[in-house]
Amino acid sequence: MDVTFLQTLLASSQAPWLPDVVVARWALHGAWGVVLGAITWQLGRAFFPAWRGWLAAAVLGWALWPGPESPAFWLGLAFQSPSLMSVCLCVGWVLQPRRSHPWADRCAAGGTGSWCVLAGAGVVLGWVLLLDMLAWWPVSVYAWGFGSAALAGVVVLALLLWLAAGASPSGRAASLSLAAVLGVFVLTRLPSGNVWDALLDPWLWVLLQVGGAVVGLRRLVSARRW
Questions:
Q1: How many C-beta atoms lie closer than 10 Å to residue 11's C-beta?
Q2: Average pLDDT in the chain
Q3: What is the DSSP letter of 97?
Q4: DSSP conformation letters of 48-72
Q5: Burial 197-212 (b: 16+ CB within 10 A, else e)
Q6: FRET partner for 101 with CA separation of 20 to 30 A, picked from 2, 44, 79, 118?
Q7: Residue boundaries of the structural domains of the chain
């Protein structure tokens, strides 16, 4: 097969399947509403435990309000939409029992578990996309996200995580979270029609690196104590 033809097939972004404009606008408000509501819920556990549900619901409703009166409007202008993975993690953050650093604790306890694999893949993907934005690669990696090859690769990763998880509840949760994100993306193409935007956003990328640094420091302190 001609190498040029293969490169065009993988990197082509012509006529991508994009989400509906109205759906994407409401999804942006809804995604930011879930993220802000989850943050309010967690802060309410520490400061206003009796009112945290009402506060989180109020913040969610405020984010859903159309127009410049909504915080999601300004956050969308500055940072676009959160990824579907961020929304999924925020929902899990609200539903799980109270813990200080849940995913960092899972990586610290599980070593090379599924959550650590997902976190590591997210960090690597973020650096690849950053260097792609700076035109360090001979092809546009971001444009691959509009095609089917990148989606197929992520599906294979989800299947491998499911097979490797075995009977681990944490591993199954990681693979099911990834599968849920892919399912919503295939049906809606949110948030932008690009699979990379569904899996990762800049804020999530930064938090993954901070979480990785926390895990590394904990292991270093534990080793020195030992």
A1: 17
A2: 84
A3: P
A4: -TTTHHHHHHHHHHHHHS-STTSHH
A5: bbbbbeebbebbeebb
A6: 79
A7: 19-81, 83-226
